[in-house]
Amino acid sequence: MLSSLTIAQAHEQLKTKKISSQELVQSCIDRIESVDKNLNAVVFRNFDRALEEAKRIDTQGTFDHPLTGIPYLAKDVYCEAGVPTTACSNILRDKTYIPPFDSTTKKRLKAVGAISIGKANTDEFTCGGSTEWSCYGVTKNPWDLTRVPGGSSGGSAAAVAADECLFALGTDTGGSIRQPASYCNCTGIKVTYGRTSRYGVMSFASSLDSIGTLAKTTEDAAIILGTIAGKDPLDATTGDIPVPDYRRDMKQDIKGLRIGLPKEYFLDGMDPEVDTAIRAAAKTFESLGATIVDISLPNTAYGVATYYVIAPCELSSNMARYDGLRFGHTAPKPKDLLDYYTRIRSEGFGPEVKRRIMIGTYALSAGYYDAYYLKAQKIRTLVRQDFDNAFNAVDVLLTPCAPTPAFTIGAHTNDPVQMYLEDAFTIPASLAGIPGLAIPCGFSKNTLPIGMQLLGPQFGESTLFRAGHAYEQATEWHKKRPTI
User: Fold this and answer.
1) Known catalytic residue at 479
2) In whole angstroms, what is the distance from residue 469 CA to residue 271 CA?
3) pTM
4) Residues in the chain where the model's pLDDT stays below 70
5) How far, CA to CA in Å, does 266 sit from each of 59, 97, 425, 457?
6) For the purposes of burial, counting CB atoms within 10 Å of the CB of 173, is it exposed (0-12), middle (13-18) or buried (19 or more)?
7) Rg of the Cα atoms in the chain
8) Does residue 177 contact residue 212 with C-beta atoms inside 8 Å?
């Protein structure tokens, strides 16, 4: 099955004409049509357009870039000219929003010949950790159809794990790439804030959102990031910092690399199988020549509470643009403007988005701004200082991605606080704006994937790829695929 190839493998076969881009795209299409009825990972299919693009690339016959002719899925928050983009929300789905422009990430992928074949499911406006808050319904984990794939990039992770595409685009605000990568046995990279452009990607929390990818190997993730990263004049938050050759740099050995194990990430109540897998990964790194160092990140305990003040505040501001006047859902025969606004947002937004808008609006209101939002920003500074201090002593941090393997569908839908705690290990890095790489490191006794998280200093993605690639060369976890 060609769709099971990695990017690196497919590129070699395309270059040598062993396969064509049309065959590769068709293999992904066939796989989606075969298994997605069980997964619900793909919410829009762009197959005819993708095959036309593949035919054009085959006719040209040059595959100079590793992504030329490679099919991928984009999370349904990436704008693509002429393609419906709904953020999996009824406020845009009711009267389908079709962007007249491409996101910067889409432009950069298109420029090298990567082929978009559709949109992947997500929690509405990326608000969620399970892909249960989508207007298209829940995506199911390909390793166990009774369990969630994680979120909000759960559709992207499930699609990669199920070989529906060779890679998928995701976004990570508080763990939305790393946690589903862990749950689905994928490799996921959350980049340094400002390493990739957010232009043309629908916002959740503007100071936290980052653009990243889910792939089958660290090498593939390095290839993709090397293509999409870099300064963008359309996004003032992108850093004017050269993009390294991640793929070349990752092949260096890790002898002498200092890897920190923060004690705050090994909590009472964490699944013991997760604890065992992470500590076994640390032993593997030691066998490869790295040094393991016990360290402390004392403000980790405040991460979840801080995030769930800051992120809803920013969401409440970003969601104000969805008023039904320029695009999206409409309400017939309103009594007046207030009634129109009320009906648009009541009917268009789902329960989790509404919950977060209300929290954010409250925290920003007169009399509460100083008590909540301002204080949260001060704690955010302390969290970042923890990481700065840690990276004076170590090169990389090794932690779990999540305290448990994937939970069952519906387990936390009536307990939002418990749902939020699933992000306890991913949120601090998002608050600090540092990169994180999630890679497979084991399985539970129920054959559920377990992922580890490697964290590095700002713009330290090269070191993360080097450590992740070395680990993959010494283990087989990332090669395992679910049976669907």
Assistant:
1) no
2) 26
3) 0.96
4) none
5) 54, 44, 10, 21
6) buried
7) 21
8) yes
176 is catalytic: yes
Biggest alpha carbon distance in the chain? Answer: 71
Residue 348 lies in a domain: no
Are residues 95 and 84 in contact, defined by beta-carbon separation less than 8 angstroms?
no
* CATH code of the domain containing 216: 3.90.1300.10
Residue 10 and residue 2 in contact, taking contact as beta carbons nearer than 8 Å: yes
In angstroms, the CA 149 to CA 210 distance is 20
Residues 6+ apart with CB under 8 A from 16: none
Catalytic one of 3, 21, 75, 190: 75
Active-site residue identified among 21, 27, 130, 176: 176
Give the model's pLDDT for residue 269. Answer: 82
Q: What token pair was written down for 395?
A: 């090169």
Candidate list 103, 152, 210, 430, residue with the active-site label: 152
- Note whether 154 and 123 are within 8 A (CB): yes
Residue at 330 is within a domain: no
Q: Nearest-CA neighbor of 218 among 475, 484, 483?
A: 475
pLDDT for the residue numbered 217:
98
Q: Looking at the domain assignment, is residue 456 inside a domain?
A: yes
* Cα→Cα distances 97→40, 84, 200, 296, 341, Å: 21, 6, 13, 47, 18
For the chain, the domain total comes to 1
Owning domain of residue 26: 2-260+391-479
| 371 occurs within a structural domain | no
Tokens of 184: 């689905």
Q: Which tokens in the block code for residue 19?
A: 């396969």
Tokens of 87: 């953020």
Closest CA to 161 of 480, 401, 392, 465: 480
DSSP labels, 323-383: SSSSSS---SS-SSHHHHHHHHHHHHS-HHHHHHHHHHHHHHSTTTIIIIIIHHHHHHHHH
pLDDT at 327: 82
8-state DSSP, 201: B
Smallest CA-to-CA distance from 211 within 75, 44, 100, 383 is with 75
Q: What is the pLDDT of residue 200?
A: 98
Name the packing angle between helices 218-228 and 7-15 (round to 10°). 80
- End-to-end, the C-alpha distance of the chain in Å comes to 14
Residue 325: CB atoms within 10 A of its CB come to 12
Annotation marks residue 283 as catalytic: no
Please check whether residue 140 is in contact with residue 40, taking contact to mean a CB–CB distance below 8 angstroms: yes
Helix (H, G, I), strand (E, B) or coil at 270: coil
Residue pair 7/70 in contact (Cβ under 8 Å)? The answer is yes
DSSP 2: G
Task: Tell me which residue of 417, 438, 430, 479 sits closest to 458, measured CA to CA.
Answer: 430
Distance from C-alpha of 208 to C-alpha of 328, rounded to nearest angstrom? 25
- Contact status, residue 409 vs residue 148, Cβ threshold 8 Å: yes
